[in-house]
Amino acid sequence: MQDRIRQLLAEVPPWTAYMLLAIHEQLASLSSADELHQWLRSLRQSLPHMPPLLLALSGRGPHMSRLHRIVYSEWPAHWIERFDDPAFRAADPVLSGAAGNPIIWSQKLSSIYRPTASEKRFIAACRAAGMTHGISFVADESNHRIVLSMSGQESEANLPLQRLVLMAWPHIVGCTRRLLMPKDRLFELSPRERDVFELISNGETYGSAAHALGIDDKTVTSHVNRMMQRYDAANARHLIKILLSCHD
To answer: Is 212 exposed, middle or buried (0-12, 13-18, 19+ CB in 10 A)?
Structure first.
């Protein structure tokens, strides 16, 4: 990895090397997921021509359909909502693509030979939403993967930016792992369970959580009981401690 970094540094202007050092120092100083979110937002100010960004955690292997979390997004909300559907995520060739080298969307989509029905629907949706061009950087963890993506033709054509992000990618992965992986059991929850858990872990009662979600108290109790049974928690407070502090 160090040889690769040195090679990349030789290919980019000196100012990029200084920016990489700044990125490393900034990421090392972050102490929460909110600070990571703010740091990604600040890239827009420091790099005004940077394409829209997305940082996400996605399932890997047997967890492909269940695990999904958007950490940061500058993409249209209607497109992000499509990925709430596990079948739609499963058809995305980027989310199932190999980690390592950056994935160029247009090349990946055009390389699909004899697409399945779900892949055809995914490609058609990409065309309709103007999401056929972009680049993604992928790193694999035990049961999920970290994905950083930039959308648009500019992201595919801007080689200096690609080199900068590629050099910064190990630092971004390390920061994401450090800040988010201690909570990775949260990604095992269903979307509704996650909604319930986020409310009760923030101090809401079962009744207020039910009201916020538009469901009845018994449904909230049922969700909590199932989570307690799954993680062998003695009570709701114990469940919160397990999910927020234990590694998978």
So the answer is: middle
